Amino acid sequence: MAVNVRVPTPLRKLTGEQEVVQVKPGTIASAIAELEQRFPGISERLVDPAGQVRLFVNVYVNENDIRFLQGKDSPIQDGDEVSIVPAIAGG
């Protein structure tokens, strides 16, 4: 049983250039904790000191933005796909 996490290019240096990493089912919070355990330093790029997903990071579960689900408590199940998408600013 696994959930696929799609890692954006800027964070792949932390995952040994892996584009997709598998984590255990649970919640977005447990997935971030597992990623941090396996790839130290990745969580500080995803969550702020208060433990909230950073404003410039969008996280999707099967193409649904977690901000419109249950945030970090959004459940993830076997076969789900989590996408981490850094916001792109332009001007």
Broad shape: globular
Corresponding CATH superfamily: Beta-grasp domain
Query: So, CATH architecture?
Result: Roll
Please mark out the parts with pLDDT under 50 across 5 or more consecutive residues, or reply none. none
Secondary-structure element string? EEEHHEEEE
Could you give a short description of this structure?
With 91 residues, the chain is an alpha+beta fold. It contains 2 helices and 7 strands.
Describe this structure in words.
The structure is a single chain. With 91 residues, this protein is an alpha+beta fold. It has a single domain (3-86), classed as Ubiquitin-like (UB roll). Helices cover 16% and strands 27% of the residues. The protein is built from two helices and seven strands, in the order βββααββββ. It has helices spanning 28-38, 43-46, and strands at residues 3-6, 20-23, 26-27, 57-61, 64-65, 75-76, 81-86. The strands form two sheets. Strands 2-1-7-4-5 form a five-stranded mixed beta sheet, covered by helices on one side. Strands 3-6 form a two-stranded antiparallel sheet. The chain starts with a strand and ends in a 5-residue tail after the last strand. The mean pLDDT is 95.
